[in-house]
Design a protein that fits this description.
Number of strands: 0
Oligomer: single chain
Largest sheet: none
Structural class: mainly alpha
Radius of gyration: 19 Å
Shape: elongated
Helix content: 55-70%
Strand content: under 5%
Length: about 200
C-alpha cells in the first residue's frame, strides 16, 4: 500500500493514509505558511517519501483541496451561528452571502485554494452538489419561516443555497471595482435578493 516510513506507524487503510497526509499538510501550513508548503515539506511532516504523497495526491493543489474540505464543517458551524441571529429569510439569505465573501479569505484552510491561485479547484468545490446540500442544511437549520417566504420543499431550499453560493463565489473571485464596503455589499445583495424572499 505504499506505507514506506510513516514514522514507524503505518496506516491501516488508504483513507487513513490520506487523512494523515492532509493532517501533515495542515501542520505545514500552520508552521511555515502556504508559500513554503510543498510536496517535499508535506512528505517530511508525514514521515514518508514524496512518491508516497504523490500516490495519494498527484498535485499540491489536490492536497490543498483536501485541506480546504477539512475546514468546511467548522466554517459551516460558524456561519450557522452567525445566521441564527437574523429573523427573516431575506436577512438570512443576504447575510449568508456577505458572511461567505468576508470570511472565506480569512479562513486558515478554506481560503487556501484562492491564496494558491487555484480558483478553478475552489470553484469546483463550491459548486458541487455536496456544497449545495451543505448550504441547504445550514439554511434549513436557521429558525426562520422559509415556507412563508415561498420555499416549501428541500429542493427549493437547495436551489436557494445554490443561487446564494454562486453569488458569493462571484463576489469573492471577481470583486467590484472600486471595492465595496461591507455595508455596500450587504445593501446590493439585499436590494436584489431580498424582494424574492418577502
Amino acid at each position: 500500500m505504499g506505507y514506506h516510513g510513516w514514522q514507524g506507524n503505518p496506516p491501516g487503510t488508504e483513507d487513513e493514509a490520506r487523512r494523515r497526509i492532509v493532517k501533515a499538510a495542515m501542520a505545514c501550513v500552520d508552521r511555515v505558511g502556504l508559500a513554503k508548503t510543498s510536496m517535499s515539506v508535506v512528505a517530511a511532516e508525514a514521515g514518508v517519501t514524496r512518491q508516497t504523497v504523490y500516490r495519494y495526491f498527484p498535485r499540491l493543489a489536490d492536497i490543498l483541496s483536501a485541506v480546504a474540505l477539512a475546514g468546511v464543517e467548522d466554517f459551516a458551524a460558524r456561519m450557522a451561528r452567525h445566521l441564527a441571529s437574523f429573523g427573516s429569510p431575506a436577512e438570512v439569505a443576504v447575510e449568508s452571502v456577505v458572511f461567505g465573501v468576508l470570511e472565506v479569505p480569512r479562513e486558515p484552510y478554506l481560503g487556501l485554494l484562492l491564496q494558491a491561485g487555484e480558483s478553478d479547484f475552489f470553484t469546483v468545490a463550491v459548486t458541487s452538489a455536496e456544497s449545495f446540500a451543505l448550504g441547504a442544511r445550514i439554511l434549513r437549520d436557521v429558525p426562520v419561516d422559509w415556507a412563508g417566504a415561498g420555499i416549501a420543499t428541500d429542493d427549493e431550499l437547495q436551489g436557494l443555497a445554490e443561487i446564494l453560493m454562486r453569488l458569493f463565489l462571484s463576489f469573492l473571485q471577481h470583486p467590484s471595482t472600486p471595492a465595496l464596503t461591507d455595508d455596500q455589499l450587504r445593501a446590493l445583495v439585499r436590494r436584489w435578493i431580498g424582494p424574492a424572499l418577502q
